[in-house]
Amino acid sequence: MAQKTRATVDKFYERVGAGDIDGVIDLLAEDFHWEIPGDSETVPWLGRRNTPEAVKEFFAHMGDLVDREAFDIDRVVVDGQDAVVLGRAAVTVRATGKLMDTLFAAHFVVEEDVAVGVPTWPHDDTPVETRQNGRDFECYTR
Asked: At 133, which CATH number?
């Protein structure tokens, strides 16, 4: 089981890196859970997503609002159907020019080659400045 879990997680990140969002969605179970904690009204790429359309919206927000500076996977720990991915993501928010550099942990639960539990990023207390509806906001994503 651990080999299938690792292979599914590897495919997930390969498809993300290639911009193959439909391929990412193909790896998700019908009842998947995807959440990046934070105020999604202030920072649109945060929040809970549980439909393919919502996942596409996540990637659209990321593509429209930020420039990726770094995305590094430091470690993948697999135990049966569970995998935890540890890494670092850094993006520049286009509206403000501010860098958001954060460590992340993503928990995957893989059943029958599809992920039912996917990214949850516990962010640090670094303020994120963004622009929404013509106004500047500063928020904390934890």
From this structure: 3.10.450.50
Q: What's the Cα-to-Cα distance from 26 to each of 9, 35, 66, 88, 107, rounded to whole Å?
A: 12, 18, 25, 25, 18
Sheet (strand 99-111) strand order: 47-49, 28-36, 114-120, 99-111, 82-93, 66-79
The H or E element containing residue 14 is helix 2-18
Cα→Cα distances 65→56, 75, 90, 91, 94, Å: 14, 27, 13, 10, 6
Domain that holds residue 42: 2-140
| pTM: predicted TM-score of the whole model, two decimal places | 0.77
Domain total in the chain: 1
Q: What is the pLDDT of residue 77?
A: 94
Rounded to 5 degrees, what are φ and ψ at 10? Answer: -60, -45
105: number of CA atoms within 13 Å, CB side? Answer: 8
φ/ψ (deg, to 5) at 93:
-75, 120
